[in-house]
Amino acid sequence: MSKLGKRVITSREGIDRTKLYPLDEAVRLVKERAKAKFDETIEVAMNLGVDPKHADQMVRGVVNLPNGTGRTVRVGVFARGAKADEAKAAGADVVGAEDLVEKVNGGSIDFDRCIATPDMMGLVGRLGKVLGPRGLMPNPRVGTVTMDVVAAVKAAKGGAVEFRVEKAGILQAGVGKASFSAEKLVENIKVLTDAVQKAKPAGAKGHYINRVAISSTMGPGVKVDLSTLGS
Question: How far is it, in rounded angstroms, from Cα 133 to Cα 152?
Fold first, then answer.
């Protein structure tokens, strides 16, 4: 058996796959099993009672996690003139207009979050096929199409997490690193859950948040008792 196979089996020991664990215990179990040689990301997966193929059931938003994500986020900004200067001063990693559109069109995407001023969206719209599948297309609903590029860059750098439900009604988001304290992870997860709850679409019928599980990059999933997710 490979080392990876042994590690997977060992990491699953002590976890009942059918049990729903209180949030703090689920976090503890996940942290204990995050033994990779790097600082693993802690992720939350939610199974929502929506069908994102219908426009009135799309769940999308952005939330500022109180303890950040522990991740270094590279931010790209499409802007000109004074707004481009503001973005650079705020800490944006890549800033440009036509030149940046050309680079991205050529396959050079050197950023994890993308922001644009409204006047740039005519240009940026041409990149839909490149940025869309990567979840990078700027969107006014989540604050990434804005004239306030300073606030948007600082939010992206400081722990803002964009969430979006994918097909089959699954929503996934990183909420921190294995090196975070259990208390910080619990707080981040509760804030994310609250934001997803508030983003409940008008078309959602019946149960909305059906299942929640937490895992680390290399670890097994641990199911969470939904009643313990409230703040």
Answer: 22
Q: Which residues contact 113 (CB under 8 A, 6 or more apart)?
A: 73, 74, 75, 76, 136, 144, 156, 160, 162
Q: Which residues of the chain have pLDDT under 50?
A: 1
Alpha-carbon distance 208 to 139, whole Å? Answer: 24
CA distance 214 to 201: 24
**pLDDT digits 0-9 by tens, 132-171:** 988 899 999 888 999 999 999 998 888 888 898 998 899 9
* CA gap 98, 21 in Å, rounded: 51
Residues 166, 112, 188: CA angle, nearest 5 degrees: 65
Q: What is the pLDDT of residue 1?
A: 47
- Structure-token match 């994890």, residue found: 112
List the 113-116 sheet strands across, edge first.
94-96, 75-78, 113-116
Report strand pairing: 41-48 vs 75-78.
Answer: unpaired
DSSP string across 97-133: SHHHHHHHHTT----SEEEE-GGGHHHHGGGHHHHGG
Give the pairing of strands 75-78 and 113-116: parallel
* One-letter identity of residue 96: G
Determine the pLDDT at residue 211.
Answer: 96
The token pair at 101 is 């559109």
DSSP letter at 82? Answer: H
